[in-house]
Design goal:
The structure is a single chain. The chain is mainly β and 102 residues long. 0% of the residues lie in helices and 54% in strands. Strand 5 (72-82) and strand 6 form a beta hairpin. It is globular and about 40 Å long. It starts with 16 loop residues before the first strand and ends with a strand.
């Protein structure tokens, strides 16, 4: 399917895959639990109880799911933070993948 055939929402370089995977965020010596909501070749969307600042560099780890799926470990940059602590306990984080770690 070419980009011309896709809806406006999906005219990106990478298709987003909907997921619901537990993940760990490492930042400034602290560890936070989050949920990955979608994943593409360039970034991901996560929900977390912790808000981060735009431009923060985080390490993320999405755990191995069975014997055939290796863990995903990457360095990401926070590109979007949505959420209001008065309305919800969770923030939605837009994360851009900078480096995939082995």
């Amino acid at each position: 399917m070419s980009t011309a055939d896709r809806s406006y929402q999906e005219k990106r370089d990478f298709i987003r895959m909907k997921v619901s995977s537990a993940m760990t965020i490492l930042h400034a010596g602290n560890e936070y639990q989050a949920t990955c909501r979608d994943l593409s070749g360039a970034g991901l969307l996560a929900e977390c109880e912790q808000a981060f600042n735009l431009g923060d560099e985080l390490e993320i780890i999405i755990a191995q799911q069975g014997e055939t799926h290796m863990p995903f470990n990457a360095i990401v940059e926070v590109t979007r933070v949505d959420g209001d602590p008065e309305e919800s306990d969770n923030y939605t984080l837009g994360l851009s993948i900078k480096t995939i770690k082995n």
